[in-house]
UniProtKB/TrEMBL annotation:
Residues 1-21 form the signal peptide. Keywords: Signal. It comes from Chryseobacterium vrystaatense. InterPro entries: Cell_wall_metabolism_enzyme, Dup_hybrid_motif, M23ase_b-sheet_dom. This is Metalloendopeptidase. Residues 52-120, 133-167 form the M23ase beta-sheet core domain.
């Protein structure tokens, strides 16, 4: 088969694949889950921290409590109530093999809301994950199922909407189902980057290339590279007609008119969504808040249904001739942008000389210092890491170990690794029970209880940074904001939680000796007055018991009148 014929077959396959993806799903079966026009704040596959965005974020005009309706006939098969993540969510299973998900809700429809409330009081637990049979809560297309909100891991009022394969639970791009969302705007390209791939995409990292737009085509000057093995990354967004920065749906990379890489974001499972970190320039994303998507496959990136097999995007330059490069970006509606440039290999330079321990995709690795040990699985990294690990002293009065430096927070790991740290002084058995491991990854910290394994504390993390053992003998607490015995006329009680280290991992409130349902919103605990505490019911005693990550427990008592 000639090169031209091979190219033609691949091109036809790509086009057929894209068309089939859009026509292989029922069109116009699902309706808009809101009673206002669908406007996107985020689309399927948009880049998020450690995951792809797995549905559509639908605008609610910065309002809460808009009606959310079932997208089709079916039944409520599951609900979730959680502090982060989806907050309050409803899952509806449909007879055509799909399940729709509606998240960040304020309130379920009355009968369902009452059922959930009864279950919470029965279990004496606010967070819930309840499944239902087909006959319990049937719904029809367009029926009210909830009110929109801002609960869970939401940064503002909106509705998160997903469509899943009921059997596999894979999330499918909802835009493939024929929703009427006008879009005549092609993806916007703002940056092009090349990477020396002889050692790793992480070292030496991205090399920026100026991009210009002439008419309807993006261009860049001839790219002079000093490595014979390179790959590209693209910085681009899909604007649609609504102004928000959306993720790129489809990309192709061609050299000398030959397709060498392609991806489409049609479906992703929650088991695989963390592979996002192997599809982007993670250091740029974490350090510079810049979304650059690789137009190549990193060795440890195993995401299914994303890129075409045998097209890894790695360019091997065997000569010093000028080669044509074309990048094609498309949205679901077919709006297309093209970037055309040229590449030339100038000269070969020495490879990166590793100075630390080499961690490679597909290989497990154990690295030690005098008082620390890290164990990586074979799935830990997406590309080769020249891993630097060392110890330094810690001046924190609560520290009971050296700080162990785990390379850099700008390099991703895919799954949990095991970290062992030895304290730098002898601890009593009581003190051992109050030791936590703290990982600082720059933008935040993660604190876990860990467990003792011989003379070391063992903990699991899935990000890199600096780790230390802390002795936490402090008590968690909540503050009420009211004086004891005061008459409260507001519609709710709000308690603010405080800890020195870690988090409040257990919260229990009792009103006059009986469990009371407080919802958790970030660091606050909120009770909305109901029949459990009616007006005119006199003086009440509220007992609150909290436990922090270290296991320290505190009980506080507040009084008020209604």
């Amino acid at each position: 088969m000639t090169v031209f014929c091979k190219l033609l077959v691949i091109t036809l396959f790509i086009n057929a694949f894209t068309i089939k993806a859009q026509k292989n799903y029922p069109q116009n079966y699902f309706r808009n889950p809101l009673n206002i026009p669908m406007q996107l704040a985020a689309n399927f596959g948009a880049v998020r921290t450690n995951h792809f965005h797995m549905g559509l974020d639908l605008r609610t005009n910065s309002q809460e409590n808009l009606s959310v309706v079932s997208a089709a006939d079916g039944y409520v098969s599951r609900i979730k109530v959680e502090r982060y993540g989806f907050g309050n969510a409803v899952y509806i299973t449909h007879p055509n093999g799909y399940t729709t998900v509606y998240a960040h809700l304020n309130k379920y429809f009355d009968k369902l809301d009452e059922y959930v409330k009864e279950r919470q009081y029965k279990d004496e637990k606010w967070e819930q994950d309840i499944t239902f049979s087909a006959g319990q809560f049937p719904v029809t297309k367009g029926q009210l199922i909830a009110l929109s909100g801002n609960t869970g891991g939401s940064a503002g009022p909106h509705l998160h909407f997903e469509i899943r394969d009921t059997k596999t639970e894979d999330c499918i791009n909802p835009l493939l189902f024929g929703f009427n969302i006008p879009d005549q705007i092609a993806p916007i390209i703002s940056g092009l980057y090349w990477y020396d791939r002889r050692f790793s995409a992480y070292e030496p990292g991205a090399n920026g290339i100026a991009v210009k737009k002439a008419g309807g085509v993006y261009t860049a000057d001839v790219i002079q590279v000093d490595s014979p093995m390179v790959s590209f990354g693209i910085k681009a967004v899909d604007k649609a007609n609504q102004g928000f920065n959306l993720g790129i749906y489809h990309a192709e990379l061609l050299m000398d008119d030959r397709l060498i890489y392609s991806f489409s974001i049609d479906k992703v499972s929650y088991d695989d969504t963390r592979y996002l970190n192997g599809c982007i320039d993670y250091p740029k994303f974490i350090r510079d808040k810049m979304g650059i998507q690789h137009l190549s496959v990193l060795p440890g990136m195993k995401l299914k249904n994303y890129s075409l097999p045998d097209l890894n995007g790695i360019i091997n330059l065997q000569d010093e001739e000028v080669h044509n490069i074309e990048i094609v970006l498309k949205d679901v509606n077919g709006n297309t942008s093209r970037l055309k440039t040229k590449i030339r290999f100038n000269k070969k330079i020495d490879k990166v000389t590793p100075a630390g321990e080499i961690v490679m995709a597909g290989n497990g690795k154990t690295i030690t210092t005098q008082n620390g040990e890290i164990n990586f699985s074979k799935n830990a990294v997406y590309d080769t890491v020249n891993f630097q690990m060392y110890e330094k002293s810690n001046t924190n009065a609560d520290a009971v170990s050296n700080t162990v430096v785990l390379h850099s927070p700008y390099i991703p790991v895919h799954d949990d690794y095991t970290l062992k740290i030895k304290p730098n002084r002898k601890l009593t058995n009581e003190e051992k029970g109050k030791v936590v491991a703290l990982l600082d990854y720059g933008s935040d910290t993660n604190v876990v209880k860990g467990k003792w394994n011989g003379d070391r504390v063992e903990a699991e993390f899935n990000r890199l940074g600096t780790a230390v053992l802390l002795l936490d003998e402090s008590l968690p607490s909540v503050s009420s904001g009211w004086k004891d015995g005061v008459l409260i006329n507001s519609s709710s009680l709000r308690l603010k939680g405080t800890v020195k280290v870690g988090d409040i991992v257990s919260f229990r409130a009792e009103l006059d000796g009986k469990w009371l349902r407080f919802a958790r919103t970030k660091d606050d605990f909120v009770y909305i007055f109901d029949e459990k505490c009616p007006k005119g019911s006199g003086l009440h005693t509220l007992k609150v018991t909290t436990t922090n990550t270290a296991g320290n427990t505190n009980t506080q008592t507040f009084t008020f009148q209604r």
